[in-house]
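Page 47, continued from p. 46.
Same chain as before, 113 aa.
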Amino acid sequence: MLKVYGIKNCSGVKKAIKYFKAHQILYVFTDFRESPVTQKKIDAWLEHIDIHALFNTKSTTYRNLKFKESTLNEKEKATWLAKENMLIKRPVIEWDDNIIIGYNESVYQQKLH
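Result:
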């Protein structure tokens, strides 16, 4: 079963859930605000994906923390993802050892059917 991580009001998360329902794909949703993702989970994701795919440089949180002017290394970025889950690109879709970041219907069709 898929695990979907994000926040309820995110448009990408809404589209992904709509897609899963339409294609009868079972999933479990975890809202970052209700159940924050831990450093251990982020580190596990980073074994399968690049930090740049997971670190959301377009988020309001990113701008508010003024990270554009900073020179965070990958370890520091991973630490910040655990500290501030709103820096994680959404949705994160996880199953077995697979991860998909963001809403992408063509990737879903290719990997989930």
